[in-house]
Write a structure and sequence with these properties.
The complex is a heterodimer. By secondary structure, chain A is mostly helical. Chain A is built from seven helices and two strands; from the N terminus they run ββααααααα. Chain A has a two-stranded antiparallel sheet with strand order 1-2. The longest helix of chain B is centred in the last third of the chain and has 29 residues. Chain B is globular, with a radius of gyration of 21 Å. Chain B starts with 23 loop residues before the first strand and ends with a helix. Classes of the chains: A mainly alpha, B alpha+beta. The interface between A and B is large, with 50 and 51 residues.
């Protein structure tokens, strides 16, 4: 769940506000919650908060959001900004440029390292509604592992730079493991 | 199976068995999956949602693990029945709203639940009693592989499983553990523990998942990050964190026992006394008092109350359960009377 206010960071603070017996729930990220809590102290109501959100949407419009729409489902990036949901799997390809940094902010990484779907032979694997050359038939283990390795090496370099040695050791072991698996293939 | 059959059934996760079940109520893993052919539910047409439902139904029919299961079509159900399924932790509150083309598949043991057309096309959930995330993962992983043979999931090599909300992208996995932490609450250490949990990018929620507040002494802790770590790593991380919290709760219980025995005895027995004799009781008060009785039972104070009876009372005293038991709509005042009656019956029979 993304923050109700900024729509960028994951919501970690869950606020319940009761006005005239009406219960309203707000899900905010830490940053917005902090800003809001000081505002709340000045007796702000929910309507003020909502007005603030609209302002925020307005500001975003000025920042040059791409007008391009997903050819598969018709969702525009501005729609995503408004509702916090993508339209279909293909949106991830279309808005890749904007989503990669967003995913990195949310998860600390934009590279998947978990399992991939077991597929029946001969079904065309697709990222979304329209199969693209890049993703079609590319979900075999080897190239993915290679991408993992590059990402891990980059992470390792960063960890060393930050002097986060525990993390670095963990990454080193992972790289070793994957490299040896590749040799065994 | 009909929905009313669930009334006489104890969900697997309520059995009070499994590792560390004195502190851990249940372990849950859910996977978010989407079909590549269709837009995500909020962006899809009714016809498309119907096709999603049919595709998933067809896939499910081929899977042995789901042979004894029931499909509930939410659009056909009344609000009590829907609330009843939420109270049993089989689905989210979100799944009770705008129910067109939404469905829920539950296996007879209430271990596996599939929410269809919720935020994503498919939310697969697996529940286990006690602290058992690895077991939960090994079962759900197999089920996920079976489903993937029949369904073409939306997946990209770099982003992983694609979900409607980017907060679930990657593994699409959320692992949650429901903890009962009365001693950490009583000794006022809980804030410190929860602050540490948040710092490590985990979230704490209430009894009913996303958007609900922690109530009584129950806390559901789950991972926030779903991308950039493998499923095993995510589970390892939650596991390590939960193991520490369990240790702290166990320690706090021992300290209470050795330093404040009389006060603890008093609180637990008073709670038991009120539950056994109250004529009117709200669900909030029930949860708080049952929490104390459960603690007493965990500490061996009540030899003849089993954990399962207490666990069941947490669920059967909820509003929709009471109304299902009575088989009619009850006002909040009527429920408070019936609730007290049910508790008296269950506890005095022991």
């Amino acid at each position: 769940m993304l923050c109700d206010i900024c729509g960028k960071n994951p919501a970690t603070v869950h606020l319940t506000e009761i006005i005239d017996d009406q219960m309203n729930e707000l899900h905010l990220c830490e940053e917005c919650a902090r800003t809001k809590s000081s505002a709340m102290e000045q007796q702000f109501g929910l309507s003020d908060l909502l007005a603030g959100m609209v302002d925020f949407e307005q500001q975003n419009k000025d920042e040059g959001i791409p007008a391009v729409k997903c050819p598969s489902c018709g969702l525009a990036y501005a729609d995503f900004k408004k509702i916090g949901r993508l339209g279909c799997g293909q949106c991830y390809n279309v808005f890749r440029k904007y989503l990669a940094p967003l995913l990195k902010r949310i998860h600390g990484s934009s590279q998947h390292v978990g399992k991939s779907p077991v597929r029946k032979a001969k079904t065309a694997p697709t990222g979304a509604a329209v199969p693209t050359g890049a993703s079609a038939a590319a979900s075999t283990a080897a190239p993915k592992r290679k991408a993992d390795l590059q990402e891990l090496k980059a992470q390792l370099a960063k960890a060393i730079e930050k002097e986060a040695f525990e993390e670095a050791a963990r990454l080193r072991d992972q790289i070793k493991k994957i490299s040896s698996e590749q040799k065994n293939v | 199976m009909k929905i009313d059959d669930l009334l006489n059934h104890t969900s697997e996760w309520l059995k009070g068995t499994g590792p560390n079940s004195d502190i851990v109520i249940s372990s849950r893993i859910r996977l978010a999956r989407n079909l590549s052919k269709y837009p995500f539910p909020h962006w899809a047409s009714k016809t498309q949602l119907d096709e999603v439902l049919n595709d998933i139904k067809a896939a499910v029919s081929k899977i042995d693990m789901l042979k004894s299961s029931t499909l509930f079509i939410l659009g056909d159900m009344d609000s009590i029945d829907k609330q009843f399924l939420v109270e049993r932790h089989l689905m989210s509150i979100e799944h009770t709203q705008k129910t067109e083309k939404k469905a829920l598949l539950v296996d007879d043991e209430e271990i596996i639940a599939l929410m269809i057309n919720e935020e994503d096309h498919l939310r697969v959930q697996l529940m286990q009693s006690g602290f058992n995330l690895f077991e939960a993962w090994s079962i759900i992983n197999r089920l996920d592989d079976e489903l993937a043979k029949a369904l073409d999931y939306a997946y990209l090599d770099d982003f992983g499983y694609l979900t409607a909300c980017p907060t679930n992208t990657g593994t699409g996995m959320r692992g949650s553990v429901m903890l009962h932490l009365p001693a950490l609450v009583m000794s006022r250490q809980i804030e410190r523990v929860l602050a540490a949990v948040a710092k490590l990018s985990f979230t704490t929620r209430g009894l009913y998942g996303e958007g609900t507040q922690a109530s009584g002494n129950f806390f559901q802790i789950s991972n926030q990050v779903s991308l950039g770590h493998s499923e095993d790593e995510i589970i390892e991380n939650i596991n390590g964190l939960i193991r520490q919290i369990i240790e702290q709760e166990a320690q706090a219980r021992q300290i209470l026992l050795s330093k404040n025995r009389a006060v603890l005895d008093d609180r637990i027995n008073r709670s038991f006394g009120i539950l056994k004799s109250a004529r009117i009781i709200t669900s909030q008060e029930t949860i708080e008092l049952l929490s104390m009785v459960r603690l007493g039972s965990d500490l061996g104070m009540f030899k003849d109350i089993d954990r399962r009876t207490i666990n069941e009372l947490f669920i059967t005293t909820q509003p929709a359960h009471l109304q299902k038991i009575e088989n009619k709509k009850l006002s909040s005042e009527e429920r408070d009377l019936k609730r007290a009656e049910l508790i008296r019956k269950k506890l005095n029979l022991l």
